Amino acid sequence: MFFSKYIAVSFLLFCLSLDAANCAGPLFHFCFSQTKYTVNSPYATKLNGLLNQLSTKVPRTGFRLDFNVDAENRVNGLALCRGDVSSRNCKTCVIDAEKEVRHRCPYEKGATIWYDYCLLKYSDMDFFGKIDNGNKFYMWNVQEVKNTTSFNRKLKDLLSSLSYKAYASPKLYATGELVLGSSEKLYGLAQCTRDLSSLDCKECLDGAIGELPKCCDGKRGGRVVGGSCNFRYELYPFVAA
């Protein structure tokens, strides 16, 4: 079982260049195992091999899951890159995530770390195909919109449409935009890890969208980010065309 952990983090965006893959550190991380491994243990050996496989193979498709079948030292791992990220930036992000999560969660048998471009997750428990509602955090822009009621309604409309588009996409990923006025647009992104079924992806995203009032009421930008799905919206374009 993953522990239920929620945290709200306010943010201002300093890295606006889409090519600046390493301009910022991780968004957040969780160390969630109840036990630890030792440096020369069989688990450590299998984890090293699994993380190497993830960083090597994930850039080809933007997603990879791996595991070993040793019942006593089972290791399950998953890496996901944002749907618009290049193979080069994807690989760089996953390698950075591997190094950083080891530093932040030393000898933990379960951990998740998020960057703007990727997610890396591993555990001694089988989590494939299960919605992770425990490891989740919020981010938002500290600036607010003028007409909160109208904005929130249009934002929910956009994100709900992206939830459906992601559900219908083989990559479980969708982006879109919505015109707010004569000179302003709202941009959004929704994505799930591809170990989920389409239906579970939609359930995960709809649940995340339902948390909008908790994290992002009237904010000019925001995210709900979890271990199985996430969404983001901004008043400027933030994904590659």
From TrEMBL:
The places in or outside the cell where this protein is found are: Secreted
Q: Which residues form the signal peptide?
A: 1-23
Taxonomically, the superkingdom here is: Eukaryota
Which Pfam families does the record associate with it?
Stress-antifung (PF01657)
- InterPro entries reported in the protein's UniProt record: CRR_secretory_protein, GNK2, GNK2_sf
* PROSITE patterns, per database record: GNK2
Query: In what residue span(s) does the Gnk2-homologous domain sit?
Result: 25-127, 133-238
Q: Which UniProt keywords apply?
A: Repeat, Secreted, Signal
Q: Which Gene3D superfamilies match?
A: Gnk2 domain, C-X8-C-X2-C motif (3.30.430.20)
User: Which Gene Ontology cellular component terms are annotated?
Assistant: extracellular region
Its primary localisation, in coarse terms, equals secreted
By sequence similarity, the record places it as follows: Belongs to the cysteine-rich repeat secretory protein family.
The identity of this protein, by name, is Cysteine-rich repeat secretory protein 38
